[in-house]
Amino acid sequence: MCIFLPCFRCTGERVEEKVNLIVDGKILISGLTKNTARSGIYFASFNIFKELLKSDKVNVILYVEGKNYLLLKEFLTQEFPKNKIKIISDIEGNNCISLWYLYLSAMKKRAKVAKQSIRKFLCILALLILKPLVKIFSKPLDIKRYGNNLCFLSLCFAVPEIFKNCRNYTILYDITPLVFPDYFPSDKVGFWFASLMDSLNAKAGYFAISEATKKDFLKVAPVLNEKQITTTLLACDDSFLPVDKALVEKVRAKYKIPEGKKYVFSLCSLEPRKNLLRAVKTFVQFLKKNDIDDLVFVLGGGQWDTFIAKLDAEIKNQEDYKDKIVKIGYVDDEDLAALYSGAEWFVYTSQYEGFGMPPLEAMSCGCPVISSNSSSLPEVVGDAGIMVDYDSDEQHIAAYEKYYFSEDLRKENAAKGLERAKNFSWEKTGKIILDKISA
């Protein structure tokens, strides 16, 4: 008889062993810098990770390759100062050689970002000397120590080789590099995606961020079947709420949005698939057609140099209206809600999206939305905004006119958007993932 601890034999109740959930933390390192690396995928990964930490169904363990180990520890210190999160690496052992190797790898990465060529060279030289010693004094990670109830979750990238034989899941975002191959050369941005596609298999599990994304992957990866992929809609941060006029004015001044002018807002990376050339061109045509002088188009987001040249050329052809297009570049996270709240409406007529976070953020702030009716965007916007064909100039102009000349329509869609946004939450997203993993 068990005197001290009840067990299944005594009580008749099965005590379930918690899942040891190892999460790939590589994408989280993007949180250390305020630039375009903090993309939609980063924010989704960060919020999903936060939800996982709240659960009592799993033991969360972060995994990172050795060269990123110290960078990830720095990120965790900044974002979760009160949390003790276990972190493991593919290099085990606390010997000095391994730690120096990790430190120099981190410094090499920092030197590259800061364009400090001499420091980068010295780090590379030291790493070449240390690398064989690391192999001698360090041993590979032994995942058997985490028991049979082990699961690996990749927030973005292909599952590392060491975890391919255990139960594993990967979050799928979109197939943009396949839809626009010219903009994703395999030796640069598209390399991680090519590795992901190569890793897809019939045994693993997957989470797709929209029904559209699920259908896309089933179409391009015949090895997958529908039952493997669970649709897991995303959400936006709780900070996206309507804000007061005083804060809107303060943020307007910060980004030099012209005084005395109303503005239309668009937030995205300035790349071809976002359809900004058409959005800008038709905005100018709309201004001309209706002789409007009290409205400007504010573009926020990271910039692609080649695309900016095309955008500037497009605006240059409309010389009299060039001052009606305001490029404000990267927007700090804390300013976004104010920019959405102060806009007359938000434009996001992208050709292709895996989910479409910005329209949801805009709706959450009470900003009327114009979006395209392609890919996943109808799943996000529904009937709460004006939807257009991404390749129709006429529909863009008509949508601008509907909002500009009808305050009632703007108010109606703002209210619809606020209500629809309540259907999306990170709690729901996390629950779907955790229920699947712990089933």
Which structural category do the helix and sheet elements fall into? alpha/beta
Low-pLDDT stretches are 1-15
**Name of the CATH superfamily of the largest domain:** Glycogen Phosphorylase B
Number of E strands: 15
CATH architecture of the largest domain: 3-Layer(aba) Sandwich
> Beta fraction of the residues?
15-25%
Helicity, in percent?
A: 40-55%
Please summarize the sheet with the most strands: 7 strands, parallel
The CATH topology name of the largest domain reads: Rossmann fold
How far apart the termini lie comes to 31 Å
Q: Give the class-level CATH name of the largest domain.
A: Alpha Beta
Architecture blueprint of SSEs:
Blueprint (H helix, E strand, L loop, with lengths): L7 H4 L7 E6 L15 H15 L3 E7 L4 H11 L6 E4 L1 E2 L3 H18 L3 H21 L1 E2 L9 E5 L12 E6 L3 H4 L11 H9 L5 E4 L2 H10 L8 E3 L13 H10 L7 E6 L8 H15 L4 E6 L4 H12 L8 E5 L6 H7 L3 E3 L8 H8 L4 E4 L4 H5 L4 E3 L4 H12 L2 H15 L4 H13 L1
Parallel strand pairs: 1-2, 1-6, 2-3, 6-7, 7-8, 8-9, 10-11, 11-12, 13-14, 14-15
Antiparallel strand pairs: 4-5
Helix pairs in contact: 2-17, 4-5, 9-12, 10-11, 10-15, 13-16
